């Protein structure tokens, strides 16, 4: 029982990353009709926003410490972060510790900016081009973004820990009145789950309850008519692109403490996020979120050793197997709309 | 001529001549010159040009004609490779049975995958093929290790069965061959500072490429090809005329799967080893990119796209900083360092960056791929003539 | 690559003969000008091929290997301070290149894919005339390139490759490995682990689902079980896995008190980070402190895991602090660290070390053999005993071309001073304890053979 609850938690946690990425992707892909292969790169750039902020906060000048020597026997140079001399040692250490949450403030404008520039500068010209051209141009862009990050940060993963207040685990066992320590779960992963729910809720509320969202939804359904009504749908689509980029970026920022970011992480998620979006159904935001959580949970269960003994290797393929079964039984995924990207 | 129009026959002839003269065309620089780095006329790369050319031609029959975007084509290449190497291990190191088996097994696998995936269209189809390919990759890497060799793949071993071959004499090796012609045997022609390598394996691959290209012309121009195009341009209307599009699409899918199997078999023939990464989604993505980059739906485009990507992967990635220093040694020191700092991020380990930039530039400025670039240049010349004769330019494929 | 001058006539003749029966002998032999592939005799320079990952997850490790290679070339050509050439027991190298020929090199990108690695190695052999290929950061690549070099008649000096297969079932006469292997990791770790954690332990294995993972798990399992440990469970994880939470939580539920992560690269960084996130390091099971073990440590990967490596055991081929801490048995280490540090500003990784040593060993073998012919070099390296290259007395065993030397057992430091000082040396397991029979079943048994060395012509 504990094991199953834990795997559900794992699935929800993993699923929240899938859902967040798929949500942003479906805004671009399922609604604007652009196959965005650079979406994984946006997620990766989000994670590197966190790395950048912690780098900036720990930006240091060297102080020679004569009492110690380095590996070559010369006097050791000790790095002292500038932030210490700006806000004092304690406040400085506190900010360094809280670098990841602080990066959210930095990532939102940066990611919206990247999204808007991408749409205005590149994607705008590709709305009417074949999907194949969109694939080529966004894939090229993804490689370029990736290589820029690699050039400045190297290929190795960069540890980006969560604030020390969030290290350690929450004891669900004690909370639910079961044995203490039977079900524990790391705080930061719970934070990630809650954070993703907030973001998903915010995006839905934005689309549902604001005039802006209403127009965008109308534009998704019938872009031409909305344009004929004299509404500037292009501008709104640009903003939507910015929002989608920000969602991907925030998913990346918060993901940094879970797995150390590297320049390649976007590509690892890219294929998976396409599968999630398509399984959810093209053009459906709830579908993307649902599929994200569903595949996350299934993946977690498939990795239990009881299951693996029965079906060796199932953990390798479960997501794809489920995707095939769903697409064969439900032609447009879980909640897809007719006629979106079927040609 | 051979059932082709004059224009197609011309194109086939050009492909054949280029393939025949590739060792000269690809080695324009003397061996000792600084530009020798850009020479691509060595056997391995020439073989790869031919193999990936075949792979892309096959992919184009599916994608270029029917518009069905398969994102799992590398699986057929991989399966073909595994089939071929098993034939070489079990039967004979002669490459023919391996290649035939590669085509057959890849075709059968494509039949299964196509039969299931073609129930859906558009992006749903793409994801289905992707899912099959990713499953093949994951299983080949892990649980199928006894058959596929897993991470370390399969190679020819001295103690393989090879039931059709005579036992090896001591010291003899089991090399891939075609009736005794070793794939690795080469003849070097040295003319002045130039070196041209004529490699047996390359010429076998080139012959197969030309045949594959000929077959693709025939398919493009056949009634069957027209039917495939009809699927792309208006599937619904085709259904209303009482035609069932599925069998045609499936046939195209299987044919292109067999092309991939042939490429896989050739790959093993030229380089006797198989590893599962050959089936990873990036490999499937690569053939998609090759086709679009060259010009989807055109005859020659995919071959050009394949050539460009493989050229960048193998040539640009080998330019390191000491080579740059060799090139620019004649500059004043400060300028030399400056120029090298500017170029360095784009070569050597930065070759991916150049690749990404080329993708973007081509698709932005040449919407029809490299073929369109060629046509524009051609038009530029023709427009001068056209002023006199007011001739019409040929539309793009 | 055989460069044969076959004429049209001989071609026709061979085809005709072969046409008679498929089973005809298939080797196409022809007379050739030089006795072996890429013979540099007539040239004033000799070219080495450095084939390392420059893109993909191992790119940084590849970059460090490349630094070491450049340093080795500099030293061979008489530049710099000579590094380990000063301490190397064999004094054949003069600092005038190899046999008086200036050493040049070409580089390529393996992308950590066997196809790309072979393409790159082939271009070095066919286009650049490299006489030796070296490098790599995974066993899949090492096995693939080693097989290629065997066919082409070129010497392959493996870089970082840890799977048993490289010198086990896939061993080749033209290939040599200086790096240690899975079996040696297990044999070296088990006594140290039982000393530190006691013999009454229950281990839970998470294993990367491919060849290297299997052999490493097998090695650690067998050697710890022999000393009294019990293996509670072993679960295979996909190579492409990034989040290991679903594999870690069952560990919390089991009664295991040790977690062994048979992972490398990003797998290792992520699984270790996740394991620490789930509080495994602070857990008490069966009244014992829960421990984590990572059989193969890599400094670069440890850097990716950051503070999470603190207190975690693993094994290494070499560490830059060896001579400082354990004295002159490991002579050469300081000389290498000195010249590497002077040039690049930080200490070298074990990948850099093994690549540097391999280059020196190759050059030395050529000098001693007095020839660039691969078979002569194979003969010079087989059974070669040497010292002064940082690992203490070392043997290149003739039967499988594997180096036998001490294995370093390390532990993540609790308070590292900087990012190059993440591990501390716990103990060094002497070479005798990590020596096995060349035909042991883990290494392909009696069926595994080197085959004949190939000169390539």
Q: Helices and strands in order, then pairings?
A:
The complex is a heterotrimer of chains A (343), B (397) and C (457).
Chain A: H1 2-31, H2 39-57, E1 60-69, E2 75-81, H3 82-87, H4 89-97, H5 99-121, H6 131-153, E3 169-171, H7 172-175, E4 184-186, H8 187-209, H9 211-221, H10 223-228, H11 233-255, H12 265-280, H13 285-302, H14 305-310, H15 314-329
Antiparallel strand pairs in A: 1-2, 3-4
Helix pairs in contact in A: 1-8, 1-11, 1-12, 1-13, 2-5, 2-6, 2-11, 2-12, 5-11, 8-9, 8-11, 9-11, 12-13, 12-15, 13-15
Chain B: H1 6-25, H2 43-66, H3 74-90, H4 95-117, H5 122-141, H6 145-148, E1 154-155, E2 177-178, E3 181-182, E4 186-191, E5 194-199, H7 200-221, H8 223-233, H9 235-240, H10 245-270, E6 273-274, H11 281-294, H12 301-315, H13 321-327, H14 333-343, H15 351-365, H16 370-389
Antiparallel strand pairs in B: 1-6, 2-3, 4-5
Chain C: H1 8-20, E1 45-52, H2 59-76, E2 102-109, H3 114-126, E3 132-135, H4 139-152, E4 155-158, E5 175-177, H5 182-197, E6 202-208, H6 211-226, E7 230-237, H7 245-253, E8 258-262, H8 266-277, E9 284-285, E10 288-289, E11 291-296, H9 299-305, E12 313-316, H10 322-326, H11 333-344, H12 350-369, H13 374-381, E13 384-386, E14 394-396, E15 403-404, E16 407-412, E17 423-429
Parallel strand pairs in C: 1-2, 1-3, 3-4, 4-5, 6-7, 6-8, 8-11, 11-12
Antiparallel strand pairs in C: 9-10, 12-16, 13-14, 14-15, 16-17
Helix pairs in contact in C: 2-12, 3-4, 5-6, 8-9, 12-13
Description of the molecule:
The complex is a heterotrimer of chains A (343), B (397) and C (457). Chain A has 343 residues and is mainly α. Helix content of chain A is 68%, strand content 7%. In chain A, a hairpin with a 5-residue loop joins strand 1 and strand 2. In chain A, helix 9 (211-221) packs across helix 11 (233-255). With 397 residues, chain B is mainly α. Chain B has helices at residues 6-25, 43-66, 74-90, 95-117, 122-141, 145-148, 200-221, 223-233, 235-240, 245-270, 281-294, 301-315, 321-327, 333-343, 351-365, 370-389, and strands at residues 154-155, 177-178, 181-182, 186-191, 194-199, 273-274. In chain B, strand 2 and strand 3 (181-182) form a beta hairpin. Chain B is globular and about 75 Å long. Chain B starts with 5 loop residues before the first helix and ends in an 8-residue tail after the last helix. In chain C, helix 5 runs parallel beside helix 6 (211-226) and helix 8 packs parallel to helix 9. Chain C is globular, with a radius of gyration of 23 Å. Chain C starts with 7 loop residues before the first helix and ends in a 28-residue tail after the last strand. Chains in contact: A-B, A-C, B-C. The interface between B and C is large, with 58 and 67 residues.
């Amino acid at each position: 029982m504990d094991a199953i609850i834990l795997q559900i938690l794992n699935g929800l946690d993993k699923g929240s990353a899938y859902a967040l990425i798929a949500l942003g992707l479906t805004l671009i892909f399922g609604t604007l009709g652009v196959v965005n292969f650079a979406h994984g790169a946006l997620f990766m750039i989000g994670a590197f926003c966190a790395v950048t902020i912690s780098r900036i906060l720990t930006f240091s000048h060297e102080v020679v410490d004569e009492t110690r020597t380095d590996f070559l026997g010369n006097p050791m140079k000790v790095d002292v972060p500038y932030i210490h001399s700006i806000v004092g040692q304690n406040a400085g250490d506190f900010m360094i510790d809280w670098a990841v949450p602080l990066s959210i403030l930095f990532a939102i404008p940066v990611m919206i900016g990247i999204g808007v520039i991408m749409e205005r500068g590149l994607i705008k010209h590709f709305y009417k081009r074949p999907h194949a051209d969109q694939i080529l141009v966004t894939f090229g862009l993804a490689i370029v973004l990736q290589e820029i990050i690699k050039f400045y940060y190297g290929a190795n993963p960069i540890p980006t820990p969560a604030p020390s207040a969030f290290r350690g685990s929450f004891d669900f066992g004690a909370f639910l009145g079961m044995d203490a320590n039977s079900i524990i779960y790391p705080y930061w992963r719970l934070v990630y789950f809650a954070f993703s729910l907030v973001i998903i809720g915010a995006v839905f509320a934005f689309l549902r309850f604001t005039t802006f969202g209403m127009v965008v939804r109308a534009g998704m359904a019938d872009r031409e008519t909305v344009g004929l009504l004299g509404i500037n749908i292009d501008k709104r689509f640009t903003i939507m692109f910015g929002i989608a980029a920000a969602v991907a970026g925030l998913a990346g920022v918060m993901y940094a403490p879970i797995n150390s970011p590297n320049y390649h992480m976007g590509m690892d998620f890219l294929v998976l996020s396409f599968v999630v979006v398509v399984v959810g159904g093209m053009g459906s935001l709830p579908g993307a979120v649902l599929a994200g959580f569903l595949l996350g949970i299934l993946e977690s269960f498939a990795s239990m050793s009881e299951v693996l003994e029965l079906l060796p290797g199932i953990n390798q393929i479960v997501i794809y197997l489920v995707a095939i079964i769903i697409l064969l039984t439900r032609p447009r995924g879980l909640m897809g709309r007719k006629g979106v990207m079927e040609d | 001529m051979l059932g082709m129009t004059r224009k197609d026959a011309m194109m086939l002839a050009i492909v054949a001549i280029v393939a025949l003269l590739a060792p000269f065309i690809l080695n324009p620089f003397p061996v000792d010159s600084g530009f020798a780095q850009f020479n691509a006329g060595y056997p391995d790369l020439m073989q790869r040009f031919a193999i990936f050319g075949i792979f892309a031609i096959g992919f184009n029959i599916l994608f270029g004609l029917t518009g069905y975007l398969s994102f799992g084509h590398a699986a057929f290449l991989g399966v073909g490779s595994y089939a071929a190497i098993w034939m070489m291990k079990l039967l004979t190191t002669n490459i023919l049975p391996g290649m035939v088996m590669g085509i057959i097994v890849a075709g059968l696998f494509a039949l299964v995958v196509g039969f299931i995936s073609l129930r859906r269209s558009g992006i749903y189809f793409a994801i289905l093929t992707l899912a099959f390919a990713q499953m093949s990759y994951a299983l080949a890497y892990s649980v199928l290790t006894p058959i596929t060799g897993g991470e370390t793949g399969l190679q020819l071993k001295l103690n393989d069965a090879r039931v059709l071959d005579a036992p090896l004499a001591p010291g003899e090796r089991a090399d891939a061959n075609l009736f005794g012609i070793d794939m690795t045997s080469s003849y070097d022609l040295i003319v002045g500072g130039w070196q041209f390598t004529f490699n047996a394996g390359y010429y076998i691959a080139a012959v197969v490429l030309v045949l594959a290209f000929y077959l693709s012309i025939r398919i493009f121009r056949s009634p069957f090809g027209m039917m495939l195009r009809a699927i792309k341009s208006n599937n619904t209307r085709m259904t209303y005329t009482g035609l069932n599009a599925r069998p045609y699409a499936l046939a195209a899918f299987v044919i292109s799967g067999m092309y991939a199997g042939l490429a896989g078999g050739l790959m093993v023939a030229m380089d006797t080893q198989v590893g599962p990464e050959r089936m990873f989604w990036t490999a499937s993505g690569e053939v998609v990119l090759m086709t679009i980059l060259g010009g989807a739906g055109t005859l020659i485009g995919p071959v050009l796209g394949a050539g460009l990507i493989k050229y960048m992967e193998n040539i640009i990635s080998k330019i390191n900083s000491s080579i740059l220093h060799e090139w620019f040694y004649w500059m004043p020191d400060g300028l030399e360092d400056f120029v090298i700092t500017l170029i360095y991020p784009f070569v050597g380990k930065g070759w991916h960056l150049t690749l990404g930039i080329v993708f973007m530039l081509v698709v932005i400025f040449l919407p029809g791929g490299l073929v369109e670039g060629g046509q524009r240049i051609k038009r530029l010349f023709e427009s001068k003539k056209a002023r006199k004769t007011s001739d019409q330019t040929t539309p793009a494929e | 690559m055989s460069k044969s001058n076959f004429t049209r006539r001989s071609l026709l003749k061979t085809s005709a003969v072969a046409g008679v029966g498929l089973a005809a002998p298939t080797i196409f032999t022809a007379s050739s000008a030089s006795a072996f592939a890429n013979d540099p005799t007539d040239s004033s320079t000799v070219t080495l091929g450095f084939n390392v990952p420059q893109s993909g997850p191992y790119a940084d490790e590849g970059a460090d290997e490349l630094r070491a290679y450049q340093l080795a070339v500099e030293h061979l050509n008489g530049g710099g301070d000579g590094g380990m050439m000063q301490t190397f027991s064999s004094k054949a190298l003069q600092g005038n290149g190899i046999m008086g020929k200036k050493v040049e090199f070409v580089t390529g990108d393996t992308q950590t894919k066997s196809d790309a690695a072979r393409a790159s190695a082939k271009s070095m052999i066919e286009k650049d005339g490299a006489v030796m290929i070296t490098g790599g950061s995974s066993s899949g690549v090492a096995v693939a390139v080693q097989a290629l070099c065997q066919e082409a008649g070129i010497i392959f000096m493996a870089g970082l490759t840890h799977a048993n297969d490289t010198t086990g079932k896939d061993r080749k006469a033209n290939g040599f490995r200086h790096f240690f292997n899975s079996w040696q990791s297990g044999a070296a770790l088990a006594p140290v682990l039982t000393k530190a954690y006691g013999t009454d332990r229950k281990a839970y294995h998470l294993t990367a689902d491919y060849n290297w993972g299997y052999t490493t798990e097998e090695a650690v399992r067998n050697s710890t079980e022999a000393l009294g440990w019990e293996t509670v469970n072993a679960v295979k994880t996909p190579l492409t896995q990034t989040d290991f939470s679903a594999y870690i939580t069952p560990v919390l539920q089991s009664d295991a008190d040790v977690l062994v992560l048979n992972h490398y690269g990003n797998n290792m960084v992520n699984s270790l980070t996740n394991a620490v996130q789930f509080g495994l390091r602070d857990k008490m099971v069966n009244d014992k402190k829960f421990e984590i073990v990572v059989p193969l440590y890599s400094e670069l990967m440890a850097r990716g895991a950051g503070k999470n490596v603190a207190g975690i055991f693993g094994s290494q081929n070499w560490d830059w602090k060896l001579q400082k801490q354990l004295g002159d048995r490991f002579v050469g280490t300081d000389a290498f660290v000195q010249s590497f540090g002077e040039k690049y500003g930080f200490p070298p990784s074990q990948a850099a070390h093994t690549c540097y040593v391999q280059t020196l060993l190759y050059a030395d073998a050529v000098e001693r053999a007095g020839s660039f012919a691969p078979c002569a070099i194979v003969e010079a390296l087989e059974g070669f005993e040497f010292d002064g290259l940082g690992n203490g007395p070392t043997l290149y065993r003739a039967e499988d071309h594997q180096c036998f030397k001490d294995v370093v057992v390390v532990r993540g430091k609790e308070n590292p001073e900087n990012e190059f000082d993440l591990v501390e040396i716990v103990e060094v397991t002497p070479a005798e304890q990590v020596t096995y029979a060349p035909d042991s079943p883990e290494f392909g048994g009696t069926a595994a053979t080197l085959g004949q060395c190939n000169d390539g012509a």
